[in-house]
Amino acid sequence: MYQTKRGSRKLPEAPYLTASASRRTGKVYSSSSKQESLDDDSFIQKKALAAALLYQHHQQMNGDLPQLDRSVSVQYPLPSSSKKQNKLPRSSSSRPRSVSHLQDLKVEDLESKHFVLVHGGGFGAWCWYKTIALLEEAGFEADAVDLTGSGINSYDTNSITSLAQYTKPLVDFLEKLEDGKKVILVGHDIGGTCVSYVMELFPSKVSKAIFVAATMPTSGQSILDTFSQQTSSNDLMQQAQTFSYAEGKDHPPTSFNLDKALLRDLLFNQSPAKDVALASVSMRPIPFAPVTEKLFLSRANFGSIPRFYIKTEEDFAISLSHQEAMIKSSSPQRVLQLKGSDHSPFFSRPQALHRLLVELSTVPSKQF
Q1: Among 16, 180, 224, 225, which residue's beta carbon has the most beta carbons within 10 A?
Q2: Catalytic residue at 343?
Q3: Is 189 a catalytic residue?
């Protein structure tokens, strides 16, 4: 029997995910010594915390960010005075296509060159660090937002009671966007539902939306509903979950966490060891209320924005068959697939993911 952490218990009646997938052992990474591994993990943790504190200090010194409170969102990376206009790195996906035109891409001529990256459950803006670097080197603008209770946002996850509250930092970001400017939204995992939520609110500010191994609900569905399409349960996901009951065990759970010992197998089975270490010290609990809230979408708003889906082939958290079931229900305009990617392509296949994002940025919205 899987034992939950102190103060929480497993809730098989209301699982977060029930994707059709079998448990499989991920890659095993080793170092020359146990001490070297511990030193690497310690270094990564200190580096992540230092970067977050440096960013907050920078914003406060420039008057851009008040003292961190329960409503503050964090965006990465630091503003840059110049962008490098380098050639795009080589990457690949399972879909053969001509990409020679991207080598001479003029970013300034695109409908939108600004990506806004939305993390999934338990993650934070930190998980996009490779994607941000690649996009900026190619001349794009890139921002990643910490959703409420995620990353270094200080809000208590157990106090989040709605999808609106969870997505508030993303809503605030789009509200402050200058008139006439459009962004490309990218959502990962349950961040796909958050992207859908703001598409309904701000259709005039979104050029297109890209769902990366993400929930893609239809109107009237919750995140939990999207996973009910599966034909069987995901044993590994169920084993990894531990639920917290801040209002007492006679009430619904308020949040859930993922066992760090199972993170590699579940989310990072193809990812580098150092990125797994970064995630293990950075991931936070996932609020439960937004997972159960139904989202209502209209054709006039949400339906007016082109949507694209990027499938992850070696995904054990949201299986490929489950991704395809969501695609069939929601019918995005185009579907691409990343070969050899686990649930976290920003770690396992960063250049291939980058290539697909850039390719999709060149697709005119008017053709849909």
Answers
A1: 16
A2: yes
A3: yes
**pLDDT at residue 173 tops 60:** yes
And the tokens for 278? 């970064």
Burial of 151 (C-beta count, 10 Å sphere; 0-12/13-18/19+): buried
Q: What are the tokens at 310? A: 């990027």
CA distance 354 to 134: 7
Candidate list 143, 146, 189, 275, residue with the active-site label:
189
Quote the pLDDT of residue 33: 41
Residue 257: strand pairing partners:
242
Judging by DSSP bridges, how do beta strands 286-287 and 255-258 pair with one another?
antiparallel
Q: Which of 315, 322, 342, 354 is catalytic?
A: 315
* Residue 256 three-state SS: strand
- Burial, 177: exposed, middle or buried (Cβ in 10 Å; 0-12, 13-18, 19+)? middle
Give ∠ CA 31-35-36 in degrees, rounded to 5: 45
Model pLDDT for residues 83-113, shown as the tens digit of each residue: 333 333 333 344 434 444 566 678 877 889 9
Task: Tell whether the torsion through CA atoms of 71, 77, 125 and 186 is positive or negative.
Answer: positive
Entry pTM:
0.74
